[in-house]
Amino acid sequence: MRERKVAIVTGASRGIGKGIAIDLVANGFDVIVNYVNSTTDAEAVVAEIAAAGGRAAAVRADLSDRGGAALLFDAAEDLFGRCDVIINNAGALLIRPLLDMDEDDYERIVNLNQFGTFRMAKQAATRLHDGGRIINFSSTAIYTSRLGYVAYNEGDGQGIRRPQYHRQCRCARSGRH
Q1: Which domains are seen in the chain, by residue range?
Q2: Whole-model pTM?
Q3: pLDDT in tens, 90-116
């Protein structure tokens, strides 16, 4: 019998992250279901996975905090013995005009959307199992210039229109890199 692979899915208590976690389990993975706010939602995802015969654990870790990524890897290693895949899905959107936004608002979004992904990748550099993968998700919102999206677009690395070659992720719906 082959050893089960283990994935950490950030932002997995609802939406796309929840769907990814359920699909991974259906394809033979054990999953860390990361959440930050809703214990009830995260535990419901774990219960749904368990009811289908899979293994998952809900782990609260705030990726906008410096220690959040390490907590997720610690949990994967403690509960399942390893980590093979990380899915960077967690993100936040604060729609507020620039002049109405203070530095704390801006910093909170950038710390999650940009530094959270960086912190996960940095942990993965030394802790991801051989042959592991990092998958970064974003949204089509990074391709828009809407009033009030400044913190989100900057935090996702797109506020200043840079060449797209540095991105190695696909937007789930648009197919863009």
Answers
A1: 5-91+114-140 (3.40.50.720)
A2: 0.78
A3: 888 788 887 888 899 888 888 888 889
